[in-house]
Write a structure and sequence with these properties.
The protein is mostly helical. It contains 7 helices and 3 strands. The longest helix is centred in the N-terminal third of the chain and has 26 residues, at about 10-35.
Length: about 160
């Protein structure tokens, strides 16, 4: 059964919002399937992703990136540590701080998840010219709230 609505000229934004929902569903589908096989969820994936791309990240910095509470992160961290995906290391400069690093097992799993999502991006990028890719990035950037934009640029390593 196909569910559709008659399109009118004023429906483009609604259609784009819905397209974003469906694109996100497709973007997360393969990863969700891999996570489900071992009893993990999207919160675990976010931690794996950012720790993998930033080895030895300070816990406080990860909290800021994920915008979650310590309690929420601790639950996810406990799961990942019990499964031997992640480990903590005491910061050498400040013994009160903990740094996070994936274990070899965690890094392999994070690589698998990244590969699945990278394939979707590559497929999408191949269908576009470089100008269209840059325009799409500008749309994503403009959706950010102004007060968080510089923080996001810093996190992802992109100039303003």
């Amino acid at each position: 059964m196909v569910l559709s609505r008659q399109s009118t000229r004023g429906d483009e934004i609604r259609q784009d919002i819905e397209l974003m929902f469906f694109a996100y569903r497709a973007f997360t589908r393969d990863v969700d399937s891999e996570l489900e096989k071992i009893g993990l969820g999207r919160a675990h994936h976010r931690v794996l992703h950012f720790v993998h791309s930033r080895p030895y990240i300070i816990v406080g910095d990860l909290l800021a990136i994920l915008d979650v509470s310590k309690q929420s992160l601790n639950r996810v961290m406990r799961d990942l540590q019990e499964r031997e995906f992640i480990t903590t290391v005491v910061d050498q400069e400040d013994k009160r701080r903990r740094r996070l690093k994936l274990t070899p097992k965690g890094a392999r799993f994070a690589d698998t998840l990244t590969k699945l999502q990278r394939e979707r991006f590559v497929r999408g990028y191949r269908s576009m010219t470089p100008d269209v890719v840059n325009s799409w990035r500008r749309v994503l950037e403009s959706m950010l709230d102004e007060e968080e934009r510089l923080f996001v640029y810093k996190v992802i390593g992109r100039g303003s």
